[in-house]
Amino acid sequence: MELLIFAVILLLATLLTKLGIRLGIPGMVFFLALGMFLGSEGLNIIYFDDPLMAQQIAIFALIIILFEGGFNTKRNILNIAMWPALSLATVGVIITAVTLGLTAYFVLGLTLEFSLLLGAIIASTDAAAIFSILRDKNLEPRAAATVEIESASNDPMAIILTVSLIDYIQGVFGGAFFFSISLLWQIGAGAVVGLALGKAGPMLLNRLKLETGSFYYVIILSFIAGSHGTADVINANGFIAVFLCGVVIGNSEFVFKQGVSYFLEGISVFIQVLLFVMLGLLVFPSQVMHFWQEGLIIAALLILIARPVAVFLSTLCFRYCLKDNLFLSWAGLKGAVPIVLATYPFEAGLENADYIFNTVFFVVLISALLQGTTIDFVADKLNLLRPRKKRVPHTMELISWEKSKVELLEYDVKEDSHLAGKALNELDLPKYCLVTAIVRGEDMIPPRGVTVIEPNDTLFVLVRYEDKDTALEILENPEVENEEQDREEQAEKDQEQEAN
């Protein structure tokens, strides 16, 4: 019976995702609703009321999601947004927590310690929500990268603030000096662990001669768990370690990389479904609705005051324009992490733990429904949304069992491209560069030298790593000449003349 319920949940989640895409509603909203519908106050099919178990399961899910997000973060994107994102992930979280805490203190009349704790729990943006919502969006690179990197790296500050405030409420806080040292150690040591294991991963993968590709997935999972586990052993932050490990491995070349990439994408989506359904099961809707007024007020304070203040102050030194800051302010989505942090007061035995959990859950729902469903609209109005890349009905993969010296590129021919109307044998591509297939409409065409390229074709190009930049320049710019190939052809002609 349990397996049948599990199968139905996965099927419903898939169908709801398709519905969500059509309606512009984030999938996490449907997954949370599905969990509440199946829970004790819905159909009563699954009863789940264990915040501590949910906390452990959520941490496991988040490390998978963070690694996959890091794996798909390209180095050039990281370079243009790393420092402002880290500013938002540290200074921004503190400003958000303090601003929200103080405004909640004056507006709702809560105690100052309780208000600041609530602010700390809700302060961080959520990687699971951000990655799932932005995955299919074609946003301006700097803005998108800033939001993604921030969401992947701001959990340490939120966790430390939450734990420190709980300790302060319980009278066991170690002081500002201990807080500062702990923060520096968690971030610094976590980064070292992630970078070290990220470097070791591709080296190991390239040296191993495994009999089947499935074991490469096992190795990747061992690095995911190992990066978080190693950081945890030395009291560093495992989330930063996992994310940076994913970034380094994802930007390295190693055996079976394409297969690993598809595996990570699949398991990440699967984990997100289970994570949000589980968090939905944990919630009792009747209890949440008792706090809807407080939830609406806190959500308004967070979205309209605390987050914008944090964004504008944290990016002062990075020359972000007004539209970038407005987008960053609106894209501060909440998700699994605030809900998980809201279980910490239960673990600590605080008196108002129910108030915190239910209020935070309501705020997360408001954030997902309001910000998640309008992020396209806001980005478009701010001119940050680019046309989506066309969906190609066919694809090709290069899966190599040894370290490869070539790469398979996917290149879209635009309407006004200089390639349109040319035969393949007219292209001055590098000598060791080959167009292996052309996708035209719904068809995949085996190319020949006389095959003429048409607008909106998609070319699959097999090219050596050292020739990649030259090939792309030639495909993009009709004025670029392949000087290296000209020299090689001239050298061959000279050799033939000498031989004659």
Can you walk me through this structure?
The mean pLDDT is 84. Strand 2 and strand 3 form a beta hairpin. The radius of gyration is 26 Å and the shape is elongated. A 4-stranded antiparallel beta sheet has the order 1-4-2-3, covered by helices on one side. It is built from 20 helices and 4 strands. 66% of the residues lie in helices and 5% in strands. The chain has 2 domains: 380 residues, Na+/H+ antiporter like fold; 94 residues, Regulator of K+ conductance, C-terminal domain (Alpha-Beta Plaits). It is mostly helical and 500 residues long.
Q: Give the structural class.
A: mainly alpha
Name of the level-1 CATH class of the largest domain: Mainly Alpha
| Low-confidence parts | none
Sequence of strands across the biggest β-sheet? 1-4-2-3
Order of helices and strands: HHHHHHHHHHHHHHHHHHEEEEHH
What is the number of E strands?
Answer: 4
Provide the CATH topology of the largest domain: Na+/H+ antiporter like fold
Distance between the termini: 82 Å
CATH architecture of the largest domain: Up-down Bundle
Number of helical stretches of at least 4 residues? 20
Strand content: 5-15%
Brief overview:
With 500 residues, this protein is mainly α. It has helices spanning 2-23, 27-38, 51-71, 75-108, 112-122, 127-134, 141-153, 155-170, 176-207, 214-233, 238-250, 257-282, 285-289, 292-314, 322-330, 336-341, 344-348, 353-381, 468-476, 483-499, and strands spanning 406-412, 433-440, 443-445, 458-464. Helix 2 crosses helix 12, helix 3 packs antiparallel against helix 12 and helix 14 runs antiparallel to helix 15 (322-330).
